[in-house]
Amino acid sequence: MNIYQVAELAGVSIATVSRVMNGSDKVSEKTRSRVLQVIDEVGFTPNVFAQGLGLNTMHTIGILVPNISDIYMSSAVAYLQDSLAKYGYDLLLGNSGFEQEKKEQQTALLLSKHVDALIYVGSTYAGSGKDERETDYIRRAAEQVPVFVINGGVDGDNIYSSVCEDEAAVYNAAKVLIKKGCSKIWFLTDSRSYSAIKKRTGYERAIEEAGLNPVQLHVDNRIHKVRDYLLQHDDLNFDAVIAGSDAIAIGVMKYAVQKGLCVPEDIAVIGYNNSELALACEPELTSIDNHTEQICRDTVERMIKVFEAGGAENNIKRKLTVPCELVERGSS
Amino acid sequence: MNIYQVAELAGVSIATVSRVMNGSDKVSEKTRSRVLQVIDEVGFTPNVFAQGLGLNTMHTIGILVPNISDIYMSSAVAYLQDSLAKYGYDLLLGNSGFEQEKKEQQTALLLSKHVDALIYVGSTYAGSGKDERETDYIRRAAEQVPVFVINGGVDGDNIYSSVCEDEAAVYNAAKVLIKKGCSKIWFLTDSRSYSAIKKRTGYERAIEEAGLNPVQLHVDNRIHKVRDYLLQHDDLNFDAVIAGSDAIAIGVMKYAVQKGLCVPEDIAVIGYNNSELALACEPELTSIDNHTEQICRDTVERMIKVFEAGGAENNIKRKLTVPCELVERGSS
DNA sequence: TTATAAAATGTAAGTGCTTACATGTTCTGC
DNA sequence: GCAGAACATGTAAGCACTTACATTTTATAA
Hints:
2 copies of one chain form a homodimer.
Chain A: H1 3-10, H2 14-21, H3 29-42, H4 48-55, E1 60-65, H5 71-86, E2 90-95, H6 100-112, E3 117-121, H7 136-141, E4 147-150, E5 159-164, H8 166-179, E6 185-189, H9 194-209, E7 215-218, H10 223-231, E8 240-243, H11 246-259, E9 268-272, H12 277-280, E10 286-289, H13 292-309, E11 319-322, E12 325-327
Parallel strand pairs in A: 1-2, 1-3, 3-4, 4-5, 5-11, 6-7, 6-8, 8-9, 9-10
Antiparallel strand pairs in A: 10-12
Chain A binds a DNA duplex through residues 2-4, 12-16, 18-19, 21-22, 26-28, 31, 46-56.
């Protein structure tokens, strides 16, 4: 069933059918209803490829995440999907991993499918001047479609980013620990993403302001890996840990259990993302909530605005900042 | 840049360029390399919409999950994405929720984008004869493209399903608990999915064989919701719980903590899916691993075979069964 | 060489839409 | 009753490919 057959049945030209489908106002009420009835009767759906050929869009948004199975990323995808569905957009999903090459490749793949926009969740970025070329592929993509970055440190023309205030969040978290009397507060993270760097900065600032000694450890993001890593080192000497994720934080708690240490008495622990994991352990985990849902919804809202504005010239905010919130529970 | 310009530059017709791109063997080596060189030089990518119009495919697979943010679903998506990427397929993602209407709607949306196949992860199904019409929309979809169902109970022409042996798994888990001396083993689940029904059947069989009394509770799938639900009831009387998910199981453990009961001494707990959550709690959770990764990879392998066979007539297995495994930890 | 088969390449007809522009129809005011 | 405006509809040219079929080129054998 194609537009020609519908036109035939309705006794009009294909242009008229097309106009009816696209809600053009230049159709008489009589004709419109007749066409709609035929469309309904025969169950006609326009061919997206033909539409795409003409319009160069398929109402699809490309999304690239490093790891969908990560609880934080997957909930971001869920929120994005949900919001976009309301506007009739579908999601084309790329799971990029953390390798540069794969990211570029997946980006090309999504672009080749003529997505209307690209969303990067937590794109890595080595930060100030370190190796900005790493994200060049994103800027190149932005020449073709608007790019939205969630918790990533990329900017440029046609790039819109939404970040949470990781630095302030960790700074405050460290302050809280200091106030509680902790003096050997370590920072554990698994990635060198833009977020991780901001977290680290906040951590260092708080620690140094208090005249303490900052210690950072780079670990895996899986509970048992963290525990085992810590168990293998006997030079550990912390009374508090701020972790880059809830899984890492729980890894620390597992270490404490093995060592016969008590949380929070001997070691205070603060996680990140406030995911379901934070509720699974005992005591429950104090965690920094970075308001993923809000960030995702804001991103979609802005995207729609960008579409409506059409083109890269607009006065829509390039960078949106969302505060984080320390959700205190038993672990600190 | 389009095929005409490439043809022009290479001094051949567009048909030849097309042949080169599609790896047709009817091109001389000389011509092929010349064309490839031009394609490479100018960075030509064929327009997927134009290709789609001719071929009626865009090398895209539609996937429908009830809830991507669920740790089990998201890891399934990750595995599927990973496997499919190897064959050059992209994933068009629908987050259907659990409502019938939304599922049908999302299915239609994906079909309208001419996906090459549909994957349903954990599609609900009320089971033997109860209301088979609920899944009619899946059978209708299967008239258009091959449909792959993971842990769902749908079958029909052009539908390929992969299920894990939930029934046997729960049966065995219950047996283990019985052997350990538990006599008041309850079963808690959150959904009436096909899997849930199989689990229940296994549970009932084991309990009844042992001459015990089966008790089932229908709960939410979130840790605190489960805990609160249990706390509100004071007629609880179990010494073991088999849960339909790890989150539910941990909810039970949270309840135990509140009540001052010990796990596993007072209450033995077994979860499902063997997710990261199972490692987060203390004691760690005994959980049934349903080998999601293997199921996903098998599904993709079969899909490729179906594509190669072309058409619904083939002797590729319609139903694949994967055993589950009880991973025993401290909670039981 | 030349007839003939085989291989390589080109031509042109789809594929199903959108939309600028052309044409036809209805309404308005005099 | 009619010019001219306003509105409705149709015509046809893209959009960028694939591929059956036609044609040309090259190889093969007598």
